[in-house]
């Protein structure tokens, strides 16, 4: 779909929303910013029994649509892409709105998708159709304004203004204060195990609009399509929808409040929770007590194989490991291993592409990776990874140059002296060892990789 057609359809959608009683469309020159719209929403009267009207508000829906578009994502069970959904909404929104306001809206089942986990196994996602993603996002924006301020200050996952980096920094601070043993808790299949009745009882304590309660229950019970068949879902909040993280935080906020009541020092990011204590013996007591509470009170199970009481340096928290005295944030060995596996996959020497073509997707991955792991305090590790990546690419080129005469010509073209080029070109040494040969390094210096757009992960520390 062309950009002009998208703009026309978006304008038509906004006019349709305005025609349904939401007032004039904002002047894009002065009011059309997301911050202005968010301010409009936050200033509305509470009206807890009329939450659905806030969900269906034009300003709220415009923000939701922008975020759904920005997040992209694949179609749901209806097969409609984001662009196709825009046209569908332009035609059918008044009917959809009536269903929402009357409490009769029925979501479609989610499409089951399985993606591999870094540590093995698969993560089961449920992809809602784009219309349901829009409604969930609109609902999320209204509920999050009310609920998020009530959540624990030690909960960092899926919350505005909070991040994994803040969680790691808080953990590091606890360790530096002498709480140098960690009770590392992993909840087994948390998103698949949430009890619907218990979740809805928590929601009902915060919402009086029965239409919203019915809508949330409908999303939970929408079912899952696998292999062309739809099966009912009796528990769990499917990962993949915008609303699921907020509901998971609501479930686990009770756990957060219990930990605070007991005086524990902890950090939680989604279903990953670390509690910090002063001794292993204290950690064992806390582990036993917390497991009992989770199983009996919240009906959740701790994954025994992934949970432990240990020193911080021996555990991974959100991709980092922390020194036992809290002095240093390191990239966890498991995270480095995952990084190298991914880079090896992106730089396979059997791929029939040019180096420039290979670097493009590699650069995208490296920029994202350094944006997160640049938070470490170990610059030498990042420098070593940069050197390792360049060596992988030298090996890639050495193999592409195929034979002695071509390798000799390539080395000479890049300024390698004749004798050195001849020795290297005639060497029977394997690809990996040749990638560190002085002649190959001379021909393919660091500035060459800079010139073809290869980012350096160590640059994150100077950013």
SSE order and pairing:
Layout: H1 3-22, H2 34-42, H3 51-55, H4 58-71, H5 82-102, E1 110-116, E2 122-127, H6 130-147, H7 164-176, E3 181-186, H8 190-193, H9 196-204, H10 210-220, E4 224-226, E5 229-231, H11 244-261, E6 265-269, E7 272-277, H12 280-296, E8 308-310, E9 320-322, E10 329-331, H13 333-346, H14 355-373, H15 379-400, H16 404-413, H17 418-425, H18 431-434, H19 438-443, H20 446-451
Parallel strand pairs: 1-4
Antiparallel strand pairs: 1-2, 3-7, 3-8, 4-5, 6-7, 9-10
Helix pairs in contact: 1-5, 4-6, 9-10, 16-17
Key descriptive features of the protein:
463 residues, 10% strand, 54% helix, alpha+beta
Radius of gyration: 27 Å
Number of extended strands:
10
Helical residues, percent: 40-55%
Number of helices: 20
Distance between the termini: 38 Å
Instruction: Note the main sheet.
Output: 4 strands, mixed
Return the average pLDDT rounded to an integer: 87
H and E string: HHHHHEEHHEHHHEEHEEHEEEHHHHHHHH
> Which secondary-structure class do the elements indicate?
alpha+beta
| Beta-strand residue fraction | 5-15%
Low-confidence stretches: 19-46
The neighbouring-strand order within the major sheet is: 2-1-4-5
Shape: globular
Describe the structure.
The protein has helices spanning 3-22, 34-42, 51-55, 58-71, 82-102, 130-147, 164-176, 190-193, 196-204, 210-220, 244-261, 280-296, 333-346, 355-373, 379-400, 404-413, 418-425, 431-434, 438-443, 446-451, and strands spanning 110-116, 122-127, 181-186, 224-226, 229-231, 265-269, 272-277, 308-310, 320-322, 329-331. The two termini are 38 Å apart. The chain is globular, with a radius of gyration of 27 Å. The strands form 3 sheets. The chain has a 4-stranded mixed beta sheet, with no helix packed on it. A 4-stranded antiparallel beta sheet has the order 6-7-3-8, sandwiched between helices. The model is unreliable at 19-46 (pLDDT under 50). The protein is built from 20 helices and 10 strands. 54% of the residues lie in helices and 10% in strands. With 463 residues, it is of the alpha+beta class.
């Amino acid at each position: 779909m062309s950009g002009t057609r998208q703009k026309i359809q978006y304008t038509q959608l906004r006019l349709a929303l305005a025609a349904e009683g939401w007032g004039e469309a904002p002047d894009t020159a002065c009011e059309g910013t997301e911050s202005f719209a968010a301010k409009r929403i936050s200033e509305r009267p509470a009206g807890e029994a009329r939450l659905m009207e806030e969900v269906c508000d034009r300003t709220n829906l415009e923000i939701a649509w922008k975020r759904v578009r920005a997040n992209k994502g694949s179609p749901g069970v209806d097969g409609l892409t984001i662009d196709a959904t825009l046209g569908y909404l332009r035609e059918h929104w008044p009917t959809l709105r009536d269903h929402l306001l009357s409490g009769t809206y029925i979501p479609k089942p989610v499409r089951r998708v399985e993606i591999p986990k870094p540590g093995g196994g698969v993560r089961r996602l449920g992809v809602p159709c784009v219309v349901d993603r829009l409604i969930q996002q609109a609902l999320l924006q209204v509920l999050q304004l009310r609920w998020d301020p009530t959540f624990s200050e030690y909960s960092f996952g899926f919350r505005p203004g909070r991040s994994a980096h803040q969680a790691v920094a808080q953990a590091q601070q606890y360790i530096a204060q002498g709480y140098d043993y960690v009770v590392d808790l992993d909840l087994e299949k948390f998103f698949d195990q949430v009890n619907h009745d218990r979740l809805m009882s928590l929601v009902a304590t915060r919402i009086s609009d029965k239409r919203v309660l019915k809508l949330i229950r409908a999303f939970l019970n929408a079912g899952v399509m696998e292999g062309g068949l739809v099966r009912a879902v009796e528990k769990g909040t499917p990962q993949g929808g915008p609303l699921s993280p907020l509901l998971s935080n609501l479930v686990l906020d009770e756990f957060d409040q219990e930990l605070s009541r007991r005086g524990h020092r902890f950090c939680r990011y989604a279903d990953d929770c670390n509690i910090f204590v002063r001794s292993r013996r204290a950690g064992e007591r806390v582990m036993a007590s917390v497991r009992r509470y989770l199983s009996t009170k919240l009906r959740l199970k701790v994954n025994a194989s992934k949970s432990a009481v240990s020193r911080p340096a021996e555990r991974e928290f959100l991709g980092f490991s922390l020194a036992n005295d809290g002095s240093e944030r390191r990239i966890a060995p498991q995270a480095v291993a995952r990084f190298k596996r991914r880079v090896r996959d992106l730089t396979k020497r059997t791929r029939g592409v040019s180096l420039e073509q290979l670097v493009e997707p590699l650069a995208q991955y490296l920029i994202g990776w350094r944006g997160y792991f640049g938070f470490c305090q170990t610059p030498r590790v990042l420098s070593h990874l940069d050197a390792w990546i360049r060596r992988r690419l030298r090996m890639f080129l050495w193999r592409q140059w195929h034979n002695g005469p071509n390798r000799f010509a390539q080395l000479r073209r890049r300024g390698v002296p004749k004798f050195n080029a001849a020795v290297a070109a005639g060497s029977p040494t394997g690809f990996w060892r040749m990638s560190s040969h002085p002649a190959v390094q001379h021909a393919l210096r660091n500035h060459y990789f800079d010139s073809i757009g290869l980012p350096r992960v160590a640059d994150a520390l100077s950013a």
